[in-house]
């Protein structure tokens, strides 16, 4: 084979791409890195659904909506978060969606972000995230009377109190995310806002753990222009740890799923060792499934290539945080940031053997709230429908193309994932704002109505990510969508 | 000889870095052979996180690469750039063949 001399430098350059990989050259393709000028346009014609299904707009103008639930009349009610990354605080609310799409306030409150809602025996149950004031689970009657059931959950950091969902046992299940990306408080937590509000906050294990004494250097985000600090796992920022150091477990803890039996205000631990178990749902067979947002490439202990996961929850199991991701130990090449070092484990001994995930979603897809189809009229009975908020690249780590921004369905028997609702596009997909269209932005909840015939999608609205630590959300851009199965055409 | 190796590497590099494309178009459900279905399940466990649905994500799109099976196998076994290598312990040869069969099916446009 003869190559022209003039082509050799080009070929050599291409070949060199193989050595460091092309990731660095082609990264920067996240879906949030775009521009947007309100108002948001909304048009179902820009949304693709499988043949035989149709998509409609139910309500627009929602501010950071996060969850939907239905009262006994089938009327949808939506939680508005009251907070978005970017440190944008608004009013947390529960609103009723009237048949004509108007929004009527049912209740408002504190402890943002409100991350989800469910309906059970005549009342709404709301997960108050608690980036301010700590997490709570509250009961709200249809006339707006609010009663806290659980308070002071350790949700002051990166991730919040999530859920809730009612189990076949009648108990209320909810979750609490971890304070940090991977167990170590770092400068990234200052850019997220909470470290300066709560300088002593850190991850809290549910059981006693023994540390390996691994510490991470960083700039002192609490005292700029001073000496660098060392920080270990499960301790406050700037605190070093030693090999063999025991961190006492506590309740309530972070990175865990809890249950609250009727009449009790003391949560019971169901499972722990999650990073951010955001979505909780029970399958028709009564098993609990949880989505987990995986590690990011940020902070003092960044991890590369950690996916989001769907777990079937086993009572009492430990799911791996912060030394395992998706059942794999993190101290291997798979999780090494390109150009960086293989991550070290922070635990001397893992407190259990993590299970294997049911399904593996795209890295940075932010796979969030979910529901299971129960209705033959809708189809795919027993499959999970998962709302994917979409990547927050580059804040959480670079990607080569937009990830998420759609609703997928999962066959939990084999882990196969298929797109179900996404924006029409011939390219890489992504949010409508990036595509210049009027479809989906950031789906955060997918929930079937009581009839099982309609899948409602809560779309958080526009949230741009312009650079590391620069997140720009837009109020009143949230949308509630509805997917139904069109009646089959009558045959002659 | 060097030029041949260089050219082969260049083709691989370009194949790895091609433009991203979304997953399979919405349309008629695909029919998979038994081998393709096995590859589909394996793909979801081992590959989907970086190439969701075969489209671009953390890594490049791999549902639009007209690569011969040999090149795909090499890429899986050796890894490319940020993509790690899959050892025999992770995936045996039969499983790699199944994933390649699934990827070949994905590359067929079905509208």
Task: Give the SSE layout.
The complex is a heterodimer of chains A (492) and B (111).
Chain A: H1 8-17, H2 23-26, E1 47-48, E2 53-62, E3 65-70, E4 76-80, E5 83-84, E6 88-89, E7 92-97, E8 103-109, E9 114-120, E10 123-128, E11 135-140, E12 146-153, E13 161-166, E14 172-176, H3 187-191, H4 194-197, E15 209-210, E16 216-218, E17 229-231, E18 246-247, E19 256-260, E20 268-272, E21 276-282, E22 288-293, E23 308-312, E24 324-325, E25 328-329, E26 359-361, E27 367-372, E28 384-388, E29 406-411, E30 416-423, H5 432-435, E31 443-448, E32 454-459, E33 463-467, E34 470-473, E35 478-485
Chain B: H1 2-16, H2 34-46, H3 69-78, H4 93-106
Helix pairs in contact in B: 2-4, 3-4
Q: TL;DR of this structure?
A:
The complex is a heterodimer of chains A (492) and B (111). By secondary structure, chain A is mainly beta.
How would you portray this structure in words?
The complex is a heterodimer of chains A (492) and B (111). With 492 residues, chain A is mainly beta. Chain A has helices spanning 8-17, 23-26, 187-191, 194-197, 432-435; strands at 47-48, 53-62, 65-70, 76-80, 83-84, 88-89, 92-97, 103-109, 114-120, 123-128, 135-140, 146-153, 161-166, 172-176, 209-210, 216-218, 229-231, 246-247, 256-260, 268-272, 276-282, 288-293, 308-312, 324-325, 328-329, 359-361, 367-372, 384-388, 406-411, 416-423, 443-448, 454-459, 463-467, 470-473, 478-485. In chain A, the strands form 11 sheets. A 5-stranded antiparallel sheet of chain A has the order 1-30-29-28-27, with no helix packed on it. A 4-stranded antiparallel sheet of chain A has the order 2-35-32-31, with no helix packed on it. In chain A, strands 3-4-7-8 form a 4-stranded antiparallel sheet, with no helix packed on it. In chain A, strand 7 and strand 8 (103-109) form a beta hairpin. The termini of chain A are far apart. In chain A, 56% of the residues are buried. Mean pLDDT of chain A is 94; it is low at 8-20. With 111 residues, chain B is mainly α. Chain B is 47% helix and 0% strand. Chain B contains 4 helices and no strands. Chain B is globular, with a radius of gyration of 14 Å. The mean pLDDT of chain B is 81. The interface between A and B is large, with 54 and 41 residues.
């Amino acid at each position: 084979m003869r190559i022209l001399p003039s082509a050799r430098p080009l070929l050599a350059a291409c070949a060199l791409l193989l050595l460091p990989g092309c990731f660095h050259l082609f990264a920067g393709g996240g879906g949030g890195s775009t521009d947007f000028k309100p108002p948001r346009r909304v048009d179902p014609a820009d949304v693709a659904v499988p043949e035989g299904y149709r998509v409609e707009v139910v309500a627009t103008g929602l501010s950071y909506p996060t969850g939907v639930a239905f009262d006994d009349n089938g009327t949808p009610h939506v939680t508005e978060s009251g907070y978005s990354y970017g440190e944008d605080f608004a009013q947390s609310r529960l609103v009723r969606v009237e048949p004509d799409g108007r929004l009527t306030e049912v209740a408002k409150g504190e402890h943002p972000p409100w991350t989800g809602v469910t309906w059970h025996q005549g009342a709404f149950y709301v997960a108050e995230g608690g980036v301010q004031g700590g997490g709570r689970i509250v009961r709200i009657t249809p006339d707006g009377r609010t009663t806290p059931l659980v308070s002071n959950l350790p949700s002051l950091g990166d991730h919040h109190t999530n859920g809730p969902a009612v189990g076949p046992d009648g108990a209320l299940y909810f979750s609490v995310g971890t304070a940090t990306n991977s167990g170590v408080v770092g400068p990234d937590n200052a850019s997220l806002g909470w470290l300066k509000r709560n300088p002593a906050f850190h991850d809290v294990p549910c059981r006693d753990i023994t540390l390996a004494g691994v510490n991470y250097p960083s700039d002192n985000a609490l005292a700029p222009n001073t000496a660098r600090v060392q920080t270990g796992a499960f301790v406050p920022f700037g605190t070093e740890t030693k090999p063999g150091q025991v961190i006492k477990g506590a309740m309530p803890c972070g990175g865990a799923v809890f249950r609250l039996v009727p009449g009790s205000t003391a949560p019971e631990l169901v499972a722990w060792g999650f990073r951010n178990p955001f979505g909780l749902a029970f399958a028709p067979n009564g098993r609990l499934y949880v989505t987990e947002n995986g590690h990011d490439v940020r902070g003092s202990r960044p991890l590369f290539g950690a996916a989001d996961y769907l777990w079937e929850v086993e009572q009492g199991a430990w799911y791996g945080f912060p030394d395992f991701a998706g059942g794999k130990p993190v101290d291997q090449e798979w999780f090494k940031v390109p150009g960086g070092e293989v991550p070290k484990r922070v635990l001397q001994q893992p407190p259990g053997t993590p299970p294997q995930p049911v399904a593996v979603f795209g890295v940075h897809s932010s796979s969030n709230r979910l529901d299971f189809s129960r209705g033959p009229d809708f189809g795919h009975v027993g499959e999970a429908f998962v709302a994917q908020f979409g990547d927050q690249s580059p804040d959480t780590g670079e990607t080569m193309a937009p990830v998420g921004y759609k609703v997928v369905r999962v066959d939990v028997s084999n882990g196969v994932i298929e797109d179900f609702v996404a924006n029409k596009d011939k390219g890489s997909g992504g949010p409508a704002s990036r595509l210049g269209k009027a479809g989906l932005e950031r789906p955060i909840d997918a929930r079937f109505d009581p009839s099982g015939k309609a899948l409602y999608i809560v779309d958080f609205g526009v949230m741009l990510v312009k650079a590391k630590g620069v997140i720009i959300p837009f109020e009143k851009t949230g949308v509630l969508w509805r997917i139904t199965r069109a009646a089959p055409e009558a045959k002659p | 000889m060097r030029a041949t190796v260089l050219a082969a590497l260049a083709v691989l590099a370009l194949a790895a870095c091609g433009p991203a494309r979304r997953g399979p178009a919405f349309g008629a459900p695909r029919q998979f052979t038994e081998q393709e279905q096995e590859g589909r399940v394996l793909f979801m466990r081992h590959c989907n996180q970086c190439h969701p649905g075969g489209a671009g994500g953390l890594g490049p799109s791999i549902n639009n690469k007209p690569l011969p099976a040999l090149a795909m196998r090499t890429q899986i076994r050796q890894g490319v750039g940020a993509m790690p290598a899959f050892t025999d312990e992770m995936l045996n040869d039969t499983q790699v063949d199944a994933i390649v069969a699934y990827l070949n099916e994905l590359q067929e446009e079905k509208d």
